[in-house]
Amino acid sequence: MNKVFLIIAFTLLSSCQNFNSNSADESRFSESPIPASGSNDPNDPAYQSYVKLVKSYNIIKTRCFQCHSQWQNLNSNQKWIDSGLVFKNNPESSSLINRLKNFDPPGDMPSGANSAIPNDDYLTLVDWIESMP
Amino acid sequence: MKITLFFLVILFSISSKLSLAYPNYIGHGYTSCLNCHYNPFGNGPLNDYGRAVSATLISARWAYPKTWTEEDLAEKSGTLFRKPKQDWFRTQFNYRRFRLTRNPGSAKNETELWLTMQADARAIIKFGENDKFTSVVNYGYAPAPLSQVSGVSNKDSWRSREHYIGYKINPKVGVYAGLMDKVYGVRLVEHIAFSRSLPQVTMNDQAHGIAVHYLNDKWEGGINGFLGNLSQEENLRMKGGSTMVERTIGDIHRIGASYMSSRNKFYSLQSYSMHTRLNLKDGASIIAEIGEVQKDIESTQSTIKSRYGLLQTYLRPARGFYVLNNIEYAKADTSDENYIVRWGPAIQIFPAQRIELRGDIYNTRVFGPETSVPDNWTLLLQTHLWL
Predict the structure, then answer these.
(1) Are A77 and A49 a contacting pair, CB within 8 Å?
(2) Measured between alpha carbons, how far is B17 from B281 in angstroms, rounded to an integer?
(3) How far is B25 from chain A (nearest CA, A)?
């Protein structure tokens, strides 16, 4: 019978969950700090720009907020511009972009031992700033 | 309309008397998973009988001397090739490795990826006649998800896939408690199937809970109450219940229906489906499932409905050799015009006990009034070994 208890104890210890169908629910479905867009017509430029903002915000949230928590309030394009981190339509001059390890010449963000952010994420950020209305 | 069509296809296939392990082993006369698996709803470790079936019915025998009888093969089906000396303890190892090639043959876009899909170590303790009491532990490796979603770890991980205790109250009823796959639909091995991903019953979606299993001559079914995976953050855990009922028709086929209702902090999910498994004899079979999933999202007070369909046919030209065809349909949002069709043939070979080789071709295509996405081809080669 001892063996049974050993095994049961093992099962209780060994469970550690990394991801499943629900892992991203919070970032996908929690209340977004970004005010909803008036339309959800994929052809509407206002909606397209809203989607870009939401995507970029979520990337920055995942990759940068742990150190740059003060950015959480920047929930509109205008606020990003006012913060001085973003130059409208000019990603190269925006420190949000040119401080990244992905940039050429490479910057130092995310700082420390963190690796550069995924290239897709980088391109999303660049495109967001480039096409800002 | 599409659903009607779908059923017409199925009806046609029955009436034209085409002939049908894994759920497709209904084609060998196994209507219930219980015969071969410790978990009566399938998946996870095989019981001794299941291992013998896999050695004598599923796998080819050309690798063995002609003089060996089927009994000899069955004798060798235990872990480490021997018959266990005791009754109460079993171990198993299960390993799958994939080679995934996207856009094969394209000079520009071909990408290739190797990944270990599964490396599981399993232990089973059992007592009593007909394994009246079982305790199953299944600990294994989960590769990082391929599609990177923000907020989700993209590291490989080791995790408990299942751990539960089962007790058969009588030959018809069993009760199971612990971390298990949710009882819902056809438990296909193709974990990327829309019929698995949309209702959230993939290979990583086990939940802690209690399941009751019932089986008699005509009916088989189960009820499952679950609290989500307790090792996951509380607000993400899907809590709720599900049920699946199957009826045997014409002695050899099955039709069934499932319902699941669950919720976490962010949304509630309702899901229902109908399925059928048809025995076309000599190992051939048809599996079909259609279903609908409804998500009611808390923060936006909105509802998204998705729909899916699946039709798989298995033919068995020779022992150890299956040829299959897979057609899947998914509409992620029924209010949207876009839908996805994924289809393709596959071959599955069991050259000897404990070895499965499989090759799948998937063509995925998005249909919609304004989509200009080119269709996408994937070649999936897979080696599956178990001890």
Answers:
(1) yes
(2) 10
(3) 28
The string of DSSP letters for B41-68 reads: TS-S-B-HHHHHHIIIIIS--TTS-TT-
State yes or no: cis peptide before A118, omega within 30 of 0: no
Q: What is the pLDDT of residues B261-287, one digit of tens each?
A: 999 999 999 999 999 999 998 889 999
**Percent of chain B beyond pLDDT 90?**
42
Q: Render B285-307 in DSSP notation, one character per residue.
A: EEEEEEEEEEEEETTTTEEEEEE
Q: What is the pLDDT of residues A89-103, one digit of tens each?
A: 999 999 999 999 999
**B234, burial (CB in 10 Å: exposed 0-12, middle 13-18, buried 19+):** exposed
A115 CB within 8 Å of a chain B CB: no
Interface of A with B in 18-37 (CB under 8 A): 18-32, 36
Q: Tell me the residue range of the domain where A50 lies.
A: 45-133
Is residue A127 a part of any domain in this protein? yes
Indicate the residue type of A127: D
Set out the domains of chain B in order of their start, with CATH numbers: 2-386 (2.40.160.10)
Regarding an ipTM greater than 0.85, the answer is no
Quick check: is A84 in a domain? yes
- Cα pseudo-dihedral B67, B71, B75, B81, rounded to 10: 40
Select the residue of A4, A22, A31 nearest B299 (Cβ to Cβ).
Answer: A31
Residue A122 located in a structural domain? yes
Radius of gyration, CA atoms only, chain A? 20
Do A11 and B137 lie within an 8 Å CB cutoff? Answer: yes
Note the pLDDT tens digit of each residue in B153-204.
556 677 888 899 999 999 899 999 999 999 999 998 887 899 999 999 988 8
CA–CA dist A114, A109 (Å, integer): 8
> What is the reported pTM?
0.71
Put residue A105 in one of left, alpha, beta given phi > 0 → left and psi -120 to 50 → alpha.
Answer: beta
Q: How far apart are CA B241 and CA A103, in angstroms?
A: 49
Cα B268 to Cα B275, B295, B346, distances in angstroms: 23, 6, 36
Rounded to a whole number, what is the distance in Å from the CA of A106 to chain B's nearest CA?
A: 23
Which helix (H) or strand (E) segment holds residue A80: the answer is helix A77-82
Q: Does A1 touch chain B (CB under 8 A)?
A: no
Q: Where are the beta strands (DSSP E) in A1-133?
A: none
Per the structure, how many domains does chain A have? 1
In a domain, A129, yes or no: yes
